[in-house]
Amino acid sequence: MAAADRSILPDTVQAINYDIGLFDLELGGAFSFQGIVKIQVKIKSATKSITLNAHHLTIHEGEISGQKTTDVSYDEKSQRVTLVFPEEISASSDAVLSIRYAGTMNNSMAGFYRSKYKPTVTPVESVPMDGEHHVMFSTQFESSDARRAIPCFDEPNLKATFDVSIEIPEDQIALSNMPEKEVKQARAGLKTVVFERTPVMSTYLLAWAFGDFEYVEGFTQREYQGKQLPCRVYTTKGLKEQGRFALENCHQVVDYFSEIFKIDYPLPKMDLLAVHEFSHGAMENWGLVTYRTTAVLFDEKQSDAKYKNRVAYVVAHELAHQWFGNLVTMDWWSELWLNEGFATWVGWLAVDHLYPDHEVWSQFVTEAVQTAQNLDSLRASHPIEVPVRDALEVEQIFDAISYLKGSSVIRMLSGHLGVDTFLGGVSAYLKKHAYGNATTNDLWAALSKASGKDVNVFMDPWIRKIGFPVLTVAEEPGQIGVRQSRFLQTGDVKGEEDETLWWVPLGLKTDPKATGAATKALTIKEDTLRDVDETFYKLNSDQVGFYRTNYPPARLELLGKERHKLSVEDKIGLVADAAALAVAGQGTTAGFLVLVEKFSDEKNKAVWSQIISSLGNIRSIFADNETLANGLKAFTLRLVTPATEEIGWDFAPNENFLTGQMRALLISTAGNAGHAKTIAEAKRRFQAYQRGDRSAVHPSLRLAVFQIVVREGGKTAYEAVLNEYTSTTSIDGKETCLLALGKVQTADLVKSFLDFQFSDKVALQDVHTGSVSLAANSKVRNALWQYIKENWDPISKKLSASSVVMDRYLKTCLSKFASHEMEKEIAAFFKDKDTKGYDRGLVQVSDTVQANANYKERDEALVLEWLKTHDYRRKLASRYPVAVISEQVIHYDLIMTKTIPEVDVHVAFARLNVSAQSNMD
């Protein structure tokens, strides 16, 4: 994207160094602060005015070369301030622009802000209160919020160095990107902490924090500049021991990345900070990474084990940014994927290195790849590299395309080139552009040189074109034909939408004796593969390619029978493709059901997660039809009951991580599908838990048990779990309770729950969490929408403080509907609203709801007729007890050949690793 197509600052002035001093911090009341920033600048051309970024700051005075400002004008829309001086400032290689200003330590999770928390131990006397809560302070500057804390040239390619000093109470601790340089005595009870100068970096990577902190410390095994590097995890007092797991990962990952990138980590320390209120999952500030608490803290005794996996991944992801993003930064926000796509892929690579038993690539396929493909199958998707004119637009592309499609195509490319060759090219790229900015083409050039292949030729369509292909397979004796076309969830691709020719690695898995082109790529519209073993073959081995495969029905059934020849990733891809192709009308419901019916003996958690997610989406679409809903519930129950009863409730000592996660998923699914024994056991254990026997509910089963009892127990159970929310001491306990409370079954409890969510008792970052479950809960999603409409003004006021939070909330709340009337109603409601910051999300909601509605209209009558003519319920009841099933006579038949939708999953939750079980009614 050319500079002329960007809304950027004038290039008359270039910042070299910022010297930032923060003082007179009002710890209470308005939470204001005063600041002085002295910017060493190069005046590139003579000028009487200097324009830079500022947002919600008051400029007292500016001065340069002995001249003081005669006028200060603000452009609120573009978040800029222009300082006018009495005389022209001559071009110069060295000048100092000094600005005195004031700002606010806001409560919007952006810029320099405050976080509320309930301390677990008595805090030091100086810690301020905000209502009933104590407060810590930190920054969040990505993408364009450094301007909320300092007047600055706030664009990623306007790099500079930074000196930071901050005046704080003597009994608190201050942190920044670099170590302390000195501590000076300030006014009574205060000190000024001065930090070392940073390397050259972008403004969005600057960070500081202060509060009543403590830390745990470890050291790398490798030496950096002659000594082991200190790594620390900081928390508010009382929580530091829960940072030990992240700490153990931190120093190992720093060493791992230093080795594979062949560049030593360049800063003298690596700090991780747990922040109590945080809009994202984490932020990669160089040398001081900030995290929401559930992404960095883990309690071995109290935490659900799934958060261990989450902490390991998020720590690795953010540390990857220390090289890919911080050392080398994208030139402009249109290339955000260079930061996020790579950090996502290499984050998983690091977790796989540390925890090979976690089988993270199967998790990647079922979470990352499928989430990205669900979004990218909408017309309202966007290319990986998306044009961004104004930095204020960029928040909406922090999504599954930039992170998950980006990482998926990197996985595909690294698989083609070989991981070692790929990392060699990355190392060369990082060394060449260190402390500077780079583009996608710069990365392709380095990879091309390392591999001897023209990477740009086959990767360009994946990065700069919207969508992805489906490969349709036609069989003939001894050969198969493959044809690529764009895949849309709606199945109605127009000619002008299907002009992209993707480079598609075929990854043919077959009998090793055959001579089929296992490594061949499809580069034309269609081709023929000859000498293919007809007894067994599968395309897209290990689901490395970012595409779907549409097999003939007989082949799909045969692959289901021979599933034991497939890798875990192959199974996940097979199930996910069958479901997605059914919704698009390119596959059949019969093919999907034939396939998944055979998986009742499956032993892998990731495969079960994909099956249950697909079935949950089907149930969501037909939820308004009681006969259909009960039939699909019965099918789900029949499928999961054998595995649920086999795995049981008890965790064996030293049990495999994935086994425990599969137990939680199966129990949740069976219980919510009406399995009587599971419901009874969940209630029994919950009652014991309530009586004080905390061992009655294993931490990894809390969500499953709480969901089941809330669903089955009415107001009493709802109030019990609500009380658990207010009393839990587990870091992940509040998130677990919010997800469980979304299982309420009546409109009055929905209102009560939503009133609670929007009260001060729930942090802004978590407001959407309970609504994820409400939206997936077919009994009450209409009540959720009604509440949003009736309370829009206060909801909008609360959520609009962060466009990320607003966008995430609306997408998760509204994407589950399946009627054209509802799509029109949603569009009409927002027609006269100012939707800047979440307009792209609303278009995605519209596309998803319309696709759901098309599917429902197309299939509902035929599926209803199918259900009425068979006797499935009696056959099921003779084998498995069912707690709640309609008296409608239902039968399961594999003749049916209609479609099943795979509704877009919650994009914002992909980075947070929320379990698929929250998607089930």
TrEMBL record:
<dbReference type="GO" id="GO:0006508">
    <property type="term" value="P:proteolysis"/>
</dbReference>
<keyword id="KW-0031">Aminopeptidase</keyword>
<keyword id="KW-0482">Metalloprotease</keyword>
<dbReference type="Pfam" id="PF17900">
    <property type="entry name" value="Peptidase_M1_N"/>
</dbReference>
<keyword id="KW-0862">Zinc</keyword>
<feature type="domain" description="ERAP1-like C-terminal">
    <location>
        <begin position="536"/>
        <end position="850"/>
    </location>
</feature>
<dbReference type="InterPro" id="IPR042097">
    <property type="entry name" value="Aminopeptidase_N-like_N_sf"/>
</dbReference>
<dbReference type="InterPro" id="IPR050344">
    <property type="entry name" value="Peptidase_M1_aminopeptidases"/>
</dbReference>
<dbReference type="InterPro" id="IPR027268">
    <property type="entry name" value="Peptidase_M4/M1_CTD_sf"/>
</dbReference>
<feature type="active site" description="Proton acceptor">
    <location>
        <position position="318"/>
    </location>
</feature>
<feature type="site" description="Transition state stabilizer">
    <location>
        <position position="403"/>
    </location>
</feature>
<feature type="binding site">
    <location>
        <position position="340"/>
    </location>
    <ligand>
        <name>Zn(2+)</name>
    </ligand>
</feature>
<feature type="binding site">
    <location>
        <position position="321"/>
    </location>
    <ligand>
        <name>Zn(2+)</name>
    </ligand>
</feature>
<dbReference type="GO" id="GO:0042277">
    <property type="term" value="F:peptide binding"/>
</dbReference>
<dbReference type="InterPro" id="IPR001930">
    <property type="entry name" value="Peptidase_M1"/>
</dbReference>
<keyword id="KW-0479">Metal-binding</keyword>
<dbReference type="GO" id="GO:0005737">
    <property type="term" value="C:cytoplasm"/>
</dbReference>
<dbReference type="Pfam" id="PF11838">
    <property type="entry name" value="ERAP1_C"/>
</dbReference>
<dbReference type="InterPro" id="IPR024571">
    <property type="entry name" value="ERAP1-like_C_dom"/>
</dbReference>
<comment type="similarity">
    <text>Belongs to the peptidase M1 family.</text>
</comment>
<keyword id="KW-0378">Hydrolase</keyword>
<dbReference type="GO" id="GO:0043171">
    <property type="term" value="P:peptide catabolic process"/>
</dbReference>
<keyword id="KW-0645">Protease</keyword>
<protein>
    <recommendedName>
        <fullName>Aminopeptidase</fullName>
        <ecNumber>3.4.11.-</ecNumber>
    </recommendedName>
</protein>
<feature type="domain" description="Aminopeptidase N-like N-terminal">
    <location>
        <begin position="30"/>
        <end position="205"/>
    </location>
</feature>
<dbReference type="GO" id="GO:0008270">
    <property type="term" value="F:zinc ion binding"/>
</dbReference>
<dbReference type="Pfam" id="PF01433">
    <property type="entry name" value="Peptidase_M1"/>
</dbReference>
<feature type="domain" description="Peptidase M1 membrane alanine aminopeptidase">
    <location>
        <begin position="245"/>
        <end position="462"/>
    </location>
</feature>
<dbReference type="GO" id="GO:0016020">
    <property type="term" value="C:membrane"/>
</dbReference>
<dbReference type="InterPro" id="IPR034016">
    <property type="entry name" value="M1_APN-typ"/>
</dbReference>
<dbReference type="InterPro" id="IPR014782">
    <property type="entry name" value="Peptidase_M1_dom"/>
</dbReference>
<feature type="binding site">
    <location>
        <position position="317"/>
    </location>
    <ligand>
        <name>Zn(2+)</name>
    </ligand>
</feature>
<dbReference type="GO" id="GO:0070006">
    <property type="term" value="F:metalloaminopeptidase activity"/>
</dbReference>
<dbReference type="InterPro" id="IPR045357">
    <property type="entry name" value="Aminopeptidase_N-like_N"/>
</dbReference>
